[in-house]
Design a protein that fits this description.
- The complex is a heterodimer of chains A (112) and B (113).
- Chain A is built from no helices and 11 strands.
- Chain A is mostly beta strands and 112 residues long.
- In chain A, strands 2, 4, 5, 9, 10 and 11 form a 6-stranded mixed sheet that branches. In chain A, strands 1-3-8-7-6 form a 5-stranded antiparallel sheet, with no helix packed on it.
- By secondary structure, chain B is an all-beta fold.
- In chain B, strand 7 and strand 8 form a beta hairpin.
- The chains are: A mainly beta (112), B mainly beta (113).
- The interface between A and B is medium-sized, with 27 and 26 residues.
Chain lengths: 112, 113
Amino acid sequence: QQQVKQSPQSLIVQKGGISIINCAYENTAFDYFPWYQQFPGKGPALLIAIRPDVSEKKEGRFTISFNKSAKQFSLHIMDSQPGDSATYFCAAQEEGFQKLVFGTGTRLLVSP
Amino acid sequence: NAGVTQTPKFRVLKTGQSMTLLCAQDMNHEYMYWYRQDPGMGLRLIHYSVGEGTTAKGEVPDGYNVSRLKKQNFLLGLESAAPSQTSVYFCASSIRGDTGELFFGEGSRLTVL
């Protein structure tokens, strides 16, 4: 049973476009929601993270939008670049627990 | 500063063979994790450790054992490999367990024939 559901599985966006990846969860005890970026042959690396006390967090071209009532959060990549082509994982963590639960990943391809 | 180092990077086993994956971190992190990554299934936690001498089960622990005899090392063992354990294994560490900020190694690709 997937605790964090991620969509789409894959995404193709033209250079300069907006990439949007969505995640949904059921466990209302989750209180930390990071996104990880993984390039081929590498391990995932933390990209950006949010806690449920804010509805949006922006870092450069990357923005997390968080909807607590809908139990959904999404990653927006503005002005997508070919260098953003990677697999993106959303994740969630419950307060007091020492482990992250990951979504199934989205493979993003930004075409030149 | 190497971060998290995994060895070996590639390994091919026959069904029933045993092996150990080694993870070493030089960041003095308390928490260490072993995940497996499979297509369409994301990253699933196998075992984790909250400090030297401790281990705990994750989502998919069956068929694996772990040990954390030294703070900097976290070993993942397969006693009798099965084809279902063909996967890419990632080790990660974090300075503390409640921030979610994991530092990953580059992975170990294991094929079980």
